[in-house]
Each structure stands twice: as structure tokens, then as C-alpha cells.
Write a structure and sequence with these properties.
alpha+beta, Phosphorylase Kinase, domain 1, 2 domains, 53% helix, 20% strand
Length: 247
């Protein structure tokens, strides 16, 4: 399957409308294609955004005056050709058109921002392995790790040692995402390293699971914090780690 063929089917794949043979073919292609995986991640984020928010919102107070000024500059006679409810209906229609255009533009922009963030998270994970810089503070004792972060950040990330469950805490380090320093907690499962990025949440989002460039990611939010778990560990075991961290 080529990239062109795969991308034509991604919408149907996300909506669960493909037959089994097509689904298996596209999933096989996605395993080895970074470009199509990124496109799929954007589609999933867009679907998530549309599902969690209402499409109705109150337009800013200044929007009416902006619309009227634009009409008057284009043709002053129009303002005097409508009266009463006719003018109100006409103006309301224009406001709706402008507002919907604004809303569509906002939804269109959002996945790009999220896709960039996801790419940065994966890149940070890879850099930590390549540069042999997994941790700035090396300890499985949360009483050492949490104070180390507290002295360097304006928040205290939750740090749990999961050694008893097979995911020992190795320590933590400072990283940089979304234009701010963030905490990166490092866990291990056998020979696989796991990065958990944590910072205060700006908005409420649904849990998501992604495969990007061969790495599995799990994202969730809890108690005002956003979490991104990333590793080359298989999705089942990474999901087990996520479940333990959420407890």
C-alpha cells in the first residue's frame, strides 16, 4: 500500500468504516510510515477535539460593530435598506457566518499545534536515549526525586516508584516542552526505557493512545496535570504502566 492509497482511507479508518482486510493493510503500512502516522495522529486529535466541545459559543461584543463598519464601508446604502426584524436577521446571519468561519479556523489550527507537541515529545524521548542523558537526578526514592523537581519548577510532579509492579523508577530530569520547563520521570520495563512527561494542564482533554515513528504514546490528565507516557515498549505493557500511574 502506498502513502496516497493509505491517506485516502485514513478518514474511514478513524471512523471504523473499513473492512478487515483494508484495516489490516493500512495498519501494516502505518507501522513503517512516519508520514501517514503523523497524518493519522492529526485526524484523531481533531476527532477528539470535536467530540469534547460544543460548537456553540458567544461571539465577542465587538464583533457586531466590526461587521457593521465593514458593511458601511462597502455600501452605506445597505444599512438604510433594512429595518426592524429584517435588519436583525440579516446582521445575525452575517455574524453566524463570520463566527463559524472563525470556529472552523480554530479547529483547523489546533491539530497542527498538537501534532507538533507530539513530535517534540517523541524527539525528547529519543534524545534522552541517544545522548545517554536519561536522568539529572538518579534515584528510585520519591523523597529524593520530588524535592529535586520542586526546587527547579513552579509545580511538584507526582513521582511514584513502581518497582514492585515491574516498572522501577530510575529518576528524573528537566526537559522543555510547550515553551516551558517540564518534568520528565524515567521508568524501565526490562530493557525498555519509559519517559513520563508531566506539567500543569492548560485545558481538559480526553485520554489518547498513539503510535508515532514506532513509539507508543499514552496521554491523560488528572488533578490539573497533563501526562504523556512514551516508549518503544509494546502498547499492552505501556498501558499497564499508565494504569498504575493513574491510581
Amino acid at each position: 500500500m502506498t502513502c496516497d492509497e493509505a491517506q485516502k482511507l485514513l478518514d474511514a479508518y478513524v471512523d471504523g468504516e473499513l473492512d478487515w482486510s483494508s484495516k489490516l493493510a493500512i495498519e501494516s503500512h502505518l507501522q513503517g510510515c512516519r508520514t501517514c502516522s503523523s497524518v493519522l495522529a492529526s485526524l484523531k486529535l481533531l476527532v477528539s477535539a470535536l467530540q469534547r466541545g460544543a460548537l456553540r459559543f458567544k461571539a465577542p461584543q465587538h464583533l457586531r460593530s466590526v461587521v457593521l463598519s465593514g458593511i458601511e464601508r462597502a455600501n452605506p446604502a445597505i444599512l438604510h435598506s433594512f429595518a426592524g426584524w429584517r435588519w436583525a436577521g440579516f446582521a445575525a446571519s452575517i455574524v453566524v457566518i463570520v463566527a463559524m468561519s472563525w470556529l472552523v479556523a480554530a479547529w483547523t489550527m489546533k491539530p497542527s499545534v498538537q501534532t507538533e507537541l507530539i513530535g517534540n515529545i517523541v524527539s525528547s524521548h529519543v534524545r534522552s536515549l541517544m545522548a545517554d542523558h536519561l536522568t539529572d537526578v538518579t534515584s528510585s526514592d520519591t523523597h529524593n526525586v520530588k524535592p529535586w523537581f520542586s526546587a527547579k519548577l513552579d509545580y511538584s510532579p507526582p513521582a511514584r516508584d513502581l518497582s514492585a509492579q515491574g516498572f522501577p523508577l530510575l529518576g528524573g530530569r528537566m526537559d522543555y516542552l510547550q515553551n516551558r520547563p517540564v518534568a520528565a520521570l524515567v521508568y524501565r520495563r526490562n530493557q525498555h526505557f519509559i519517559n513520563l512527561f508531566v506539567w500543569p494542564a492548560n485545558e481538559s482533554t480526553l485520554e489518547s493512545r498513539l503510535l508515532v515513528r514506532g513509539y507508543n504514546l499514552i496521554h491523560w490528565e488528572k488533578s490539573g496535570m497533563t501526562y504523556w507516557l512514551v516508549s518503544d515498549l509494546n502498547p499492552e505493557e505501556l498501558g499497564e504502566c499508565a494504569g498504575l500511574l493513574k491510581e
